Amino acid sequence: MSEATAATSEASGSVEAEPAGGAAQKPTYRRILLKLSGEALLGKRQYGVDPDFCAFIAAQVAEVHRLGIQIGIVVGGGNIFRGLAAAAKGMDRATGDYMGMLATVMNGLALQDALEKAGVPTRVMSAIAMNEVAEPYIRRRAVRHLEKKRVVILAAGTGNPYFTTDTAAALRAVEIGAEVILKATKVDGVYDSDPLTNSGAKRYDRLTYSQVLAQRLGVLDSTAVSLCMENDTPIIVFDLNKPENIRRVATGEPVGTLVTGGTSA
């Protein structure tokens, strides 16, 4: 794409995709929020971060980035520390949650390294001040990074205990004006029961926010779903482990389960 064409596209608010494989791919969304669990970074490990799987995620994000889509990422910290689990064993809940927030910053730095090795300019912004390793989260600055075609990793949750990184993802999506939340999981959508333990579990193609809340389907926590419902922010739940799924979702292919305020199917 020429600089003149890019400038015209940006001025009009549209996104023009670069040709790939001889055909132009049409991004459905201009700006997305990708929610990754901390466990997604485990790869084949039992604890910590698997550099190979980080590289796998980075390659997918890089492909979407080349389409001209602006990308924010919120990552959990469960692969390193889970505050709720620690609280269940007697630790003060707020202390455990703050420790979990620090774990998300570690994951954010690992993702940043993988993305930059894939040629994607990336910024880590933290809701907890730690200027030596991350920028402070400032909404307008985050939006400016996105406009400059940088991937922004939004770490440390909301910066407050008692709120999950799912809620942080919903909050940041609304703040930065993301058009959709892509919730990456280990399964290919939302089911009425755990498909890993129940072979007869039913998979949904579409759901409403109200159905997710009423049936406690566990797409995101209830606070996150309510925030999405209030701001009409769609959620797509999909399988991260399949190559190119992030691109497929971003270009409008029917992947996973769509959660909106409309009629379910």
SSE blueprint:
Blueprint (H helix, E strand, L loop, with lengths): L2 H10 L6 E2 L2 E2 L6 E6 L14 H16 L3 E6 L7 H6 L4 H25 L4 E5 L8 E2 L2 H9 L3 E5 L9 H12 L3 E6 L4 E2 L11 E2 L1 E3 H7 L6 H10 L3 E5 L5 H6 L6 E4 L5
Parallel strand pairs: 3-4, 3-8, 4-7, 5-6, 5-7, 8-12, 11-13
Antiparallel strand pairs: 1-2, 9-10, 12-13
Helix pairs in contact: 2-4, 6-8, 7-8
Radius of gyration: 18 Å
Fold-level CATH name: Carbamate kinase
**H and E order:** HEEEHEHHEEHEHEEEEHHEHE
Q: Which architecture would the CATH scheme give at its second level?
A: 3-Layer(aba) Sandwich
- In DSSP terms, counting alpha (H) and pi (I) runs of 4 or more, how many helices? 9
Nearest-integer average pLDDT: 88
| CATH C-level | Alpha Beta
* Main beta-sheet strand count, sense and barrel state: 9 strands, mixed
Number of strands: 13
Cα end-to-end separation: 39 Å
**Structural class by SSE content:** alpha/beta
Poorly predicted residue ranges: 1-23
CATH superfamily grouping: Acetylglutamate kinase-like
Query: So what's the overall shape?
Result: globular
| Spatial sequence of strands, sheet with the most strands | 6-5-7-4-3-8-12-13-11
Helical proportion, percent range: 25-40%
Strand coverage percent: 15-25%
Care to describe what's here?
The protein has nine helices and 13 strands. The protein has helices at residues 3-12, 51-66, 83-88, 93-117, 139-147, 165-176, 209-215, 222-231, 245-250, and strands spanning 19-20, 23-24, 31-36, 70-75, 122-126, 135-136, 151-155, 180-185, 190-191, 203-204, 206-208, 235-239, 257-260. The protein has a nine-stranded mixed sheet with strand order 6-5-7-4-3-8-12-13-11, with helices on both faces. It has a two-stranded antiparallel sheet with strand order 1-2. A two-stranded antiparallel ribbon has the order 9-10. Strand 1 (19-20) and strand 2 form a beta hairpin. The termini are far apart. The longest helix has 25 residues, at 93-117. Helices cover 38% and strands 19% of the residues. It has a single domain (22-260), classed as Acetylglutamate kinase-like (Carbamate kinase). With 265 residues, it is of the alpha/beta class.
